[in-house]
């Protein structure tokens, strides 16, 4: 990895891309330090310790805790992308657009932006009403009325639009996926503060060096496991009966053998996000009906909060369900079997058509099981480790580590691909020069 970045900085074009990416990420982090007008950030930070609020705050690098102008970050865009992606497989008009190449992709991206702004406005209204309904979260000198809500909503919508623009510019001009890099920068930005807080625990003798070493060791093992599972895939062999490669292929009289890769973790962190979103709903309902149903509110506050046994069990069950649901929508065995048959491809030992679809479906089902188990362990294990070591100052989140590792691997692959292209271009240019000299 270090060699790839070193080689990239030696090439002027790639060096400009990397510097451009870092400058835009710096602009995003600068905006993350600007609070939204009318918010008491010191009081609000106490309300973002768990559940969906904690997840949003984790992804935004603590922006929600101080309700900065980028408080919602890229979450509306992520949600809109998931919704549009799911609708693309079910709505005929969107499915038709997805097959129209570059123009269709541009239209779908435009719909995603509109949906992100709409979802962001709805989320901004929710958080603004939540803040203004609690006077301790409103800054001194501000009236918790309609004007304050309007200012907060407009500020957040503008922040969402600017965040999307920064992400798209990084993707088009810089290096890597802009939205993913923004999320990663937000997560990493909180680490120095949390490491310092953990060191303070050691200085005040609230924890021991042995517990910290065990905690660090578990994090390293978790990262290694994420890398292993993230790159793990089942390669289904595929043979194309039609001769490919012109006269040489016809002379051989054989087709082309390749494989169909199916990842173990096809859903990424989406099931974890959906599960956290579902589990925050009972807490929102309990808060809204605290005076009318105090017994229900007390039970939910005791049993359905982050880290409790019931919360962990329900979260694991929801992750399993959402993993199978998302994979069933994303991976369509019938469509893939049809595409293989149209291209003249087949799986050795499996008949084309329905048997191929059933074979791919069984493989996808087994991989979905292991993918769901991986996500459950990645979500539940950090909670158990934090309870066992007593180190709660460092946000040891499997979800955050999965995002960081995944983005790092994808960015590295993109850098290596661009380095390879430029090396081949160099070889081709040198070959042309030598050819001209020889002539």
TrEMBL record:
<keyword id="KW-0653">Protein transport</keyword>
<keyword id="KW-0811">Translocation</keyword>
<keyword id="KW-0813">Transport</keyword>
<feature type="transmembrane region" description="Helical">
    <location>
        <begin position="269"/>
        <end position="288"/>
    </location>
</feature>
<dbReference type="InterPro" id="IPR023201">
    <property type="entry name" value="SecY_dom_sf"/>
</dbReference>
<feature type="transmembrane region" description="Helical">
    <location>
        <begin position="367"/>
        <end position="385"/>
    </location>
</feature>
<keyword id="KW-0472">Membrane</keyword>
<comment type="subunit">
    <text>Component of the Sec protein translocase complex. Heterotrimer consisting of SecY, SecE and SecG subunits. The heterotrimers can form oligomers, although 1 heterotrimer is thought to be able to translocate proteins. Interacts with the ribosome. Interacts with SecDF, and other proteins may be involved. Interacts with SecA.</text>
</comment>
<keyword id="KW-0812">Transmembrane</keyword>
<comment type="function">
    <text>The central subunit of the protein translocation channel SecYEG. Consists of two halves formed by TMs 1-5 and 6-10. These two domains form a lateral gate at the front which open onto the bilayer between TMs 2 and 7, and are clamped together by SecE at the back. The channel is closed by both a pore ring composed of hydrophobic SecY resides and a short helix (helix 2A) on the extracellular side of the membrane which forms a plug. The plug probably moves laterally to allow the channel to open. The ring and the pore may move independently.</text>
</comment>
<keyword id="KW-1003">Cell membrane</keyword>
<dbReference type="InterPro" id="IPR002208">
    <property type="entry name" value="SecY/SEC61-alpha"/>
</dbReference>
<dbReference type="Pfam" id="PF00344">
    <property type="entry name" value="SecY"/>
</dbReference>
<comment type="similarity">
    <text>Belongs to the SecY/SEC61-alpha family.</text>
</comment>
<feature type="transmembrane region" description="Helical">
    <location>
        <begin position="212"/>
        <end position="230"/>
    </location>
</feature>
<dbReference type="InterPro" id="IPR026593">
    <property type="entry name" value="SecY"/>
</dbReference>
<protein>
    <recommendedName>
        <fullName>Protein translocase subunit SecY</fullName>
    </recommendedName>
</protein>
<feature type="transmembrane region" description="Helical">
    <location>
        <begin position="391"/>
        <end position="412"/>
    </location>
</feature>
<feature type="transmembrane region" description="Helical">
    <location>
        <begin position="145"/>
        <end position="166"/>
    </location>
</feature>
<feature type="transmembrane region" description="Helical">
    <location>
        <begin position="173"/>
        <end position="192"/>
    </location>
</feature>
<feature type="transmembrane region" description="Helical">
    <location>
        <begin position="111"/>
        <end position="133"/>
    </location>
</feature>
<keyword id="KW-1133">Transmembrane helix</keyword>
<feature type="transmembrane region" description="Helical">
    <location>
        <begin position="308"/>
        <end position="326"/>
    </location>
</feature>
<dbReference type="InterPro" id="IPR030659">
    <property type="entry name" value="SecY_CS"/>
</dbReference>
